[in-house]
Design goal:
21% helix, 6-stranded mixed β-sheet, alpha+beta, 281 residues, 12 strands, Deoxyribonuclease I, Chain A, disordered C terminus
C-alpha cells in the first residue's frame, strides 16, 4: 500500500494537481490537510473519475482534512478522543472543535489525517491550544497502543513542528523567538514518539524539507522546514519498504507551499519477511 500525506492548501484551487500526483505516483491512500472547504464543496468528481473515494471533514473556508483512497475505507472518525477546541476569546474547556482530524481504516491500518494548529506566536492563545492539542493526541496514542501494542496506527499530516535543527532551513524561524521550533513544541513531538510512534520517513530520507514559505524566494533558496510527517506504530514501521519527499511538487503553476510525503508499506508480509532489512530496531 502506498500512503501519502499532503497539505494541499485549498483542494478546490489545486484539485487537478492533487489528482494528477495521486495517479502519476500510484498512490493508494492520500491524506490531505488544509482543504479549506466543507464536505459539500469538495471536488469529489475529479477523484472519483480517477478511481478514488473520499472522506472529507471541513467546517468552513479554513482548516479541513480529508482522505482519498482507492481501497475500501471503514470506521471513519472525525476528531480523536479528547481533542480540544478553540475559539478566539473563548474561555473554558468547551470551545468548538475545529476540522483538524479525520481517520479511516484502510488495508488494516488506521490512518489519521492531521492538521496540527499553527500556534501563531509564542505569546498567542493559539500556541497554548497547539500544545494542549498535541498533548491530547499523545494521550490518545498512548491509550490506543497500551490497549493493543500491535495496532497498525499511522498519524500523518502537517504537524507544524520542525523537531530538530536539521529540520529547519528558514533563517526567520528561530528557537526562542518563533513557533515551530520552540522546546515545548519539540518536546510534544518527542512525546508522540515516546507514546509508541516512529517517524518512518527519516531513516530512509534523512534530509529534505516539506514546506517553503511563498515569500522572499524561500523555495529557490531551499530555506524550508520539515513539518509534514508520517508517524507509525511498530506494526506500520515494520512494514515500511520505501519513502520519499516529492520536492518537485513545489514547482510549477499554483503550487501548495507544502509537498507530498510518501511511504510504501508491505502489510501482508511485514511480519513474515526475513529477506527485507528492518529499518527500525
Amino acid at each position: 500500500m502506498r500512503l501519502a500525506t499532503w497539505n494541499v492548501n485549498s483542494i478546490r484551487a489545486r484539485v487537478e494537481r492533487t489528482v494528477d500526483f495521486a495517479v502519476r505516483e500510484d498512490i493508494d491512500v492520500l491524506a490531505m490537510q488544509e482543504i479549506k472547504c466543507r464536505p459539500d464543496q469538495f471536488p469529489y468528481a475529479q477523484f472519483e473519475d480517477a478511481g478514488y473515494s473520499v472522506e472529507a471533514h471541513g467546517l468552513n473556508q479554513w482548516n479541513g482534512v480529508a482522505i482519498a483512497s482507492r481501497l475500501p475505507m471503514t470506521d471513519v472518525e472525525h476528531s480523536f478522543p479528547g481533542m480540544p477546541g478553540f475559539a478566539k476569546g473563548h474561555e473554558g474547556t468547551d470551545a468548538p472543535l475545529e476540522a483538524r482530524a479525520i481517520a479511516a481504516t484502510v488495508g488494516g491500518v488506521k490512518v489519521w489525517s492531521l492538521y496540527v494548529p499553527n500556534g501563531r506566536s509564542l505569546d498567542d492563545p493559539h500556541y497554548v491550544y497547539k500544545l494542549d492539542w498535541l498533548s491530547a493526541l499523545a494521550q490518545y496514542t498512548r491509550e490506543t497502543l497500551d490497549h493493543d501494542p500491535d495496532t497498525a496506527l499511522a498519524l500523518v499530516g502537517d504537524f507544524n513542528i520542525a523537531p530538530t535543527d536539521d529540520d529547519n532551513g528558514d533563517p526567520t524561524v528561530v528557537p526562542g523567538v518563533t513557533t515551530h521550533v520552540s522546546e515545548p513544541e519539540r518536546a510534544a513531538f518527542r512525546d508522540l514518539e515516546v507514546a509508541g510512534l516512529n517517524d518512518v520517513v527519516r531513516p530512509l530520507v534523512p534530509t529534505g524539507f516539506t514546506y517553503w514559505d511563498y515569500k522572499q524566494l524561500r523555495f529557490p533558496r531551499n530555506e524550508g522546514l520539515r513539518i509534514d510527517f508520517i508517524l507509525g506504530s511498530h506494526a506500520v514501521a515494520d512494514a515500511v519498504r520505501g519513502a520519499a519527499i516529492h520536492r518537485n511538487e513545489r514547482k510549477g503553476e499554483i503550487p501548495s507551499d507544502h509537498v507530498p510525503v510518501v511511504v510504501d508499506l508491505e502489510l501482508d508480509s511485514a511480519e513474515d519477511s526475513d529477506d527485507v532489512p528492518m529499518i527500525f530496531g
